[in-house]
Specification:
Elements: H1 2-27, H2 46-68, H3 70-83, H4 98-120, H5 122-125, H6 129-150, H7 154-179
Length: 181
């Protein structure tokens, strides 16, 4: 009988820990105004800036690879599918078309630019968060749709989860940083 209660107890312990931990994070005031040139203020900005610089690079490098080495992106997608128990990606040959590669590269490079702008000056480019989250959120929903309607390949679910978490992190970090300006 004890076996059935272990999972809910673990979730309750995790929830209680998070509930108690979040107010401590809010009190740390890890974000200060960007207009403060003091070197002491650079450290509190570190989590926000690191996230957005990381995202800008995470989008810029794959965007370039879509144009220059498209098989590398497909290999990575197939590898994720294999880790999740799938075989080879069945539509691989159709994914190498130039039209869709250029479109994907342009969209992902746009994400990189928007992340870079927000990291550069949050106060000035905060409004860019709206199209940024729309692009990423729409991508997540589209991959979810593709998995359930067109092709149940688990790599699509992995991208859905990653895009959803990325969109949420974008909103949470940028809103908290903007609130503290």
């Amino acid at each position: 009988m004890r076996l059935h209660n272990t999972v809910p107890e673990r979730w309750n312990r995790l929830w209680n820990w998070l509930w108690n931990w979040l107010p401590r994070v809010r009190r740390t005031r890890y974000v200060l105004g960007m207009h403060n040139p003091s070197p002491a203020s650079a450290k509190p900005w570190l989590p926000f800036r690191l996230l957005y610089v990381f995202l800008a690079l995470q989008f810029a490098i794959p965007a370039a690879s879509y144009l220059l080495v498209p098989s590398w992106a497909l290999d990575q997608f197939e590898q994720v599918g294999r880790v999740l128990g799938e075989g080879a990606y069945p539509l691989r040959s159709g994914e190498l078309g130039l039209l869709w590669r250029v479109l994907a590269a342009g969209n992902v490079m746009t994400l990189a630019l928007m992340c870079g702008l927000i990291a550069w000056d949050l106060r000035k480019y905060y409004i860019v968060l709206v199209p940024l989250v729309f692009l990423k959120g729409f991508s997540a929903v589209a991959y979810f749709f593709v998995y359930f309607v067109a092709l149940p390949y688990r790599g699509f679910l992995a991208i859905f989860a990653l895009d959803g978490v990325t969109a949420a992190a974008m909103v949470i970090f940028a809103r908290e940083a903007h609130r503290r300006l």
